Amino acid sequence: MSASAGAGAGPGRFISGVVEGFYGRPWTMEQRSELFKREQKWGLNTYLYAPKDDYKHRMYWRDLYTAEEAEQLMALISAAKQHDVTFIYAISPGLDITFSNPKEVAALKKKLDQVKEFGCKSFSLLFDDIETEMCPADKQVFSSFAHAQAAITNEVYRHLGEPETFLFCPTDYCAAFCTPNVSQSSYLHTVGETLLPGIDILWTGPKVVSHKISVESIEEVSSVLKRAPVIWDNIHANDYDPQRLFLGPYKDRPTELIPKLKGVLTNPNCEFFPNFVAIHTLATWCKATADGGPKDVEMGEEEQDPYSPQKALTLALTDWLQEFQRTDQPGGPCRPPACLKKELSDEEPMQTDLGENYVPGPGDNPLYTAEPLTLDDLKLLSDLFYLPYEHGPTARTMLQELDWLRSNRCAATAGTDMTAEWCSRAQRFDDMCDAVVQMFNRLSNAPNRSILYDLYNYICDIKSGVGLARAFVKTLGGQSRPSAQLMNDDPEPWGFRGGLSGEFQRMLPGHGNRDLYRHPPMTAVYCIRPFCPEDKMEVQRIFKEIQSAGDGEPALVTQPPLISDSLSAGELAPSPQCAFVLEDEIGMCGYALALIDAKPAAAKIQRAVSGSVFEEFPSLIAVQVLPRVTDPSPTKRMIGGLLSSIRSSGSRGAFCELRQSDQRMLNFYTKLGSFKPIQVDGLHADIVTMATDM
Ligand code: GDL
C-alpha cells in the first residue's frame, strides 16, 4: 500500500493534484491549461475533471459531446499531456441511472468511449451527493446500493481496458456518512470487497470538509476498503458559502499520511486564481517526506514535521506576489506601479499611449501612482481568508482585540487606570483596520486584473466589515458620535449586510453561527450576581418571554398553580441568599431562585403537595435562561451556586417543576445528571417534577 509522493508515472506512483469537483461555475479551458502548467512546475501530476454543474458531467451524463465540445476537450486533454499531467475524466451518473438496465450501462460505456477517442486514458465514476434509495427495478437485481455501484463500475473499468488510473467515489465518501461507523459500514465493506483491485477509491476524511485527517483514520478506512484511498480534499473548497474564500496553507494532514495513501487531490475554491496558495502548499506538502529534514531536539512538534504550513504559506505567497505584478490585460496598465517604474526608468522610455504622454504642469494634480502590493499585504489577505476551521493569526488578534475593547467599554471614557490601556489598544485595533484598507487599495491597483476580479467581492466585503468594527470602536472611545453607519435609523444598505440569508441566521439561536473565534463554543462574558429586589421586573420579563415563546401565546395557567411560577412571577419572594441572576453584555439573560422551605409557599397558593415530597426535598428552585445563552456552562455555574446556598441552609433536597413544553430546561436538568424525575400526585399531566438530594 505504500507510495511516495511527487510527480512521475507508473502504477505505484502517488496521485497528486487537483480535482475540479465543486458546485457552481466551472473553470474555463484557459484556466485549466494554466493549471496544468502550474502543476507541472510544482511537481503535481493529476487533474480530475469533475465540475458538478457542467451539464454533461452529471445532469445530462448520457449526452455525447458535440463536435465543438469535442474539439475543446481534445485540446484540454492534449494540454494536460504536454505538461505531464494525467487527465482523469469523471462522470456522475448517480442522479438518475438505473443500474439494472442494460441500456443505461451501454449509454455510460458509449459516453466514456467517446472521451477515450479524444485521447483520454484515465477515468472515474462518481456516486457522491445522490439519493441512497434504489429504484424498484434495481432492488430486484441488486442486494444493495453498494453492489449495484460496484458491479457497474467493474463492468465499465473492464470495458475501458482496465485503465492504469481509474477512480471510484463512493456515496459514503467520509466517516460522517457511514452507518453506524467506518469499520461496521456494510456499504463500505461491500465496496471494498467487490471493486476490482485496480480501481482506486476517493475519500474526503472524517467529514465532507475535514478539519484534520489522522493516520489512524486512514488505516481504519484502508482496511475496510482493502486499499489505500485517494484523498479528495475539500479543505479549500468554498462552494458552500458565498462569503468565504480559503487562502490558508494546506494543513492538519500529517506527512506520515503520505505512505499510507494512494494520493491527494484538492477540490479548491470555485474561483480559479486565488487557488494559487491551495495548490502551491499542497505541492510543498507532497514533496515533504517523513525522514526529510534534520531533527532538532529544540524544535517544537510542528517544527519536527518536515512540512511547516507556515513556511509553505510564505513560499506560496512569495511566488504569488510575482503573479500580481504581471499585466494580464492587452495594452494595460498604462503606467506601471511605482516599484516597477524605477526599474524601467534606466532603460528605454516605455511604450506610451495617451495616459503616458500626459505630463502634469506645475500646479496640476500629479499623476496617480499605484503603490505596489507587498508580501505583508498577501499575508494579511491570507490571514483574513484562512481555512474553514481557523482564522489566520492577524484575524484572530483583531477579533480578540475587538472583543476586549467591547467588554471593557466602561474603561474607555472612565478616566481610570485602565483608560490608557483601552485607548492604546483601540489605536492598535484602528491601525490593524487601516492595514486592511491599505491592502485593499494596493490590491485594487495591481496590474493582474484576473486575480483581482476573483478576489474582489471578498476583499470588498472584509473592507466593509472592518470599517463597521472600526467605527464602532471609535464610538465606544467617544471619538465620534454614534456612527452613522451603525446607529442611524435609515442606514445605507451596507450598514445591514448579509441579505435574507443573514436575516435567517440572526434569527437562529447563537445567530446560527459557530464563530471560529469562539472555539470551543462560547467565550462570551457572563456575570452571575446575587438577585436584588430591583431585578424583580426583569425576572418577570424573562419568565413571560419564555412562557410565551414558540406560539406567541401568553402562558397557560396551570391548575393547580405551580410554586415556581409564583416565584418567577414575583408573587413569592425567594429565600435570602438564595437567588441569582445571569447577565451578558446585552443585559439580564437568566435567573435562579429558591425557597429553602417550599411548604408554606405551597400553602399560600393553596397547592397541595404530598408531605413525603417536602420531607425528602423541602426546597424548591426555579431557573430560567433565555435561548440566546447557548453555552450551558454559565447556567450550570448559577445552579451550582444556588444549590450550595441551599445546602448550607441545612436543607436535605430540592425539586423543580417543569412544563413538558420547556424541552430546553428538561434536557438541561436531565444532562446535569443529579436531578431525577419524581412522582408528585395531583399535578397537571404537562408538569414534570425533578429532584436532587444535597
Ligand atoms: C461535497 C462534494 C463536492 C463539493 C464539496 C464541498 C465530494 C466528494 N463531493 O460533498 O462536490 O465541492 O462537498 O461543498 O466532496
Please outline what is shown here.
Helices cover 42% and strands 11% of the residues. It has 694 residues and is of the alpha/beta class.
Describe the model.
The protein is α/β, with parallel strands linked by helices and 694 residues long. The protein folds into 3 domains: 3-293, Glycosidases (TIM Barrel, Alpha-Beta Barrel); 375-507, Up-down Bundle (Methane Monooxygenase Hydroxylase, Chain G, domain 1); 532-693, Gcn5-related N-acetyltransferase (GNAT) (Aminopeptidase, 3-Layer(aba) Sandwich). Helices cover 42% and strands 11% of the residues. It contains 25 helices and 15 strands. It has helices at 29-42, 67-82, 102-117, 136-141, 145-159, 186-194, 215-225, 276-287, 301-304, 309-325, 338-345, 354-357, 375-384, 393-407, 409-414, 417-444, 449-476, 484-487, 499-507, 536-547, 563-568, 599-604, 611-616, 632-648, 663-672, and strands spanning 15-20, 46-49, 86-91, 122-126, 166-169, 200-203, 230-233, 263-266, 527-530, 579-583, 588-595, 619-625, 653-659, 676-678, 687-693. The strands form 2 sheets. Strands 1-2-3-4-5-6-7-8 form an 8-stranded parallel β-barrel. The protein has a 7-stranded mixed sheet with strand order 9-10-11-12-13-15-14, with helices on both faces. The longest helix has 28 residues, at 417-444. The chain is globular. Residues 290-297 and 342-352 have low confidence and may be disordered. Residues 21-23, 52, 128-129, 169, 173, 204, 208, 232, 234, 237, 239-240, 267 line the site of 2-(acetylamido)-2-deoxy-D-glucono-1,5-lactone (GDL). 2-(acetylamido)-2-deoxy-D-glucono-1,5-lactone binds next to loops. Its EC number is 3.2.1.169.
